[in-house]
Amino acid sequence: MKRVALYLRVSTDGQQTEHQRRQLEEVAKHRGWEVVQVYEDAGVSGAKGRDKRPAFDALQKDATRKKFDMIAAWSVDRLGRSLQDLLAFLDELKSVGCDLYLHQQAVDTTTPAGRALFQMMGVFAEFERSMIRERVMAGLATAKAKGKTFGRPRVDGGMERRIAELHAKGYGKLKIAKEVGCGVSTVQRVVGSASAISVAS
Question: Mind giving me the DSSP string for the chain?
């Protein structure tokens, strides 16, 4: 009987892995696989590296220890979105004799066709991520062209002068923030800028 580990991942805390798990357990039962371990990264982006995905890291370490014969995941994008990382992952599995099953793409790396298809899926996952990034950058460029500004709102000159005056009188930053009606971080920024200008002059 083939020993199988399930890998589940969702990108946000509001999503659930239950559907992925149920489907993979049904496949395992149908094929006569024994599910020996379930690894789950909840609320973790697939774009993050192995060091930021604890369950994925543990999965790879246990694969090296030969705790199972195959890894089953819902889809290729559950494993990651970087082609380089995906291919490195597949190479690592191959080196330790561990196979991979991807439910959505019907990929089974016990076959040559499965290995080739997995690599193609990685290409498309990276392409999709690049397209999303390009759309975001285009949207930001369009917004800037229309005059929209990003980042912290600027403090007007009058408020800056008032903050500087109170600071010169020895007021603490928390008291200045209450007096002027702004955040402590704003006071710190104005006071810091004033100090830098004073030192420079």
Answer: --EEEEEEEESSTTS-SHHHHHHHHHHHHHHT-EEEEEEEEES--TTS-GGG-HHHHHHHHHHHTTS-SEEEES-HHHH-S-HHHHHHHHHHHHHTT-EEEETTTTEETTSHHHHHHHHHHHHHHHHHHHHHHHHHHHHHHHHHHTT---SSPPPPHHHHHHHHHHHHTT--HHHHHHHHTS-HHHHHHHHHHHHHHHHH-
What pTM, to 2 d.p., does this model score? 0.56
Residue-level pLDDT at 71? 96
Per-block average pLDDT, block size 10, for the chain (201 residues)?
93 79 94 94 74 89 94 88 75 85 86 77 70 84 79 71 89 88 85 57 45
Q: Which of 11, 75, 198, 201 is catalytic?
A: 11
CATH numbers and ranges of domains, the chain:
3-130 (3.40.50.1390), 157-200 (1.10.10)
Longest dimension (CA), the chain: 79
11 counts as catalytic? yes
